[in-house]
Amino acid sequence: MKSVKKVFFAVAFFAVAVSVSAQMSFGARAGLNVSTINGPHSVADYKPGFHIGLATQFAMNSAMGIESGLYFSSLGAKYGSESTNAYYLQLPLAYYYKFNVGLGLDLYPSAGVYLGYGLSGDNDYFKDKDIAGYGIPGANRFDMGATVGLTLQYYKFTIGLGYDHGFLKTNPEGDDSYTNGNIKVSVGYFF
């Protein structure tokens, strides 16, 4: 328990230090998700979805900073003609480094982590069941994973490509480790 407290205080201290010395900007982003469920015996295909939300950048200087936000995101997978849908609230936290490529354009890779909470979901196999995460009995509402991206920014406008890879099992009661995987394309505007 002491180590959890130490990690919490270290993250809190880092967040305060960054916000004190950072220039903060806010924006909005929306886009397409193409998600699946990864696993050792997965036969899932990718399924289209969407994400929409508020974005925040904490610029430590003109080139580097931390990007976060709060997004409503539609994930899931297809199994032939059947599909699984899950609707998450996601909070990413990623470090970025901007490269000025001229003509008002910045290109920046980013890498970090995300936290997710399953708000609702449905599954064609379990339509009459109580919905938890994926609509499968025993499904995990919580998700956490790695996120990477590449964004092109033109003044206040952005277009980006990214990938989220979940670390937590979508169904902790199952024998195999099935996790979320999501390719995302987004457009945004910073105020």
Describe the structure.
The chain has one helix and nine strands. Helices cover 10% and strands 62% of the residues. The protein has a single domain, classed as Porin. An eight-stranded antiparallel β-barrel has the order 1-2-3-4-6-7-8-9. With 191 residues, the chain is mostly beta strands.
Radius of gyration: 18 Å
Q: What is the share of helical residues?
A: 10-25%
Q: Tell me the distance between the termini.
A: 41 Å
Order of helices and strands: HEEEEEEEEE
Shape: globular
CATH class bucket: Mainly Beta
Given as residue ranges, the uncertain stretches (5+ residues, pLDDT < 50) are 128-133
**Whole-number total of structural domains:** 1
Oligomer: single chain
What is the CATH fold-level name? Porin
CATH architecture: Beta Barrel
What percentage of the residues does DSSP assign to strands (E)?
A: over 45%
Q: Which whole number gives the mean pLDDT?
A: 85
The secondary-structure class comes to mainly beta
Side by side, the strands of the main sheet go 1-2-3-4-6-7-8-9
Report the sheet with the most strands, covering strand number, pairing sense and barrel closure: 8 strands, antiparallel, barrel
Q: Helix tally?
A: 1
Structure summary, number of beta strands: 9
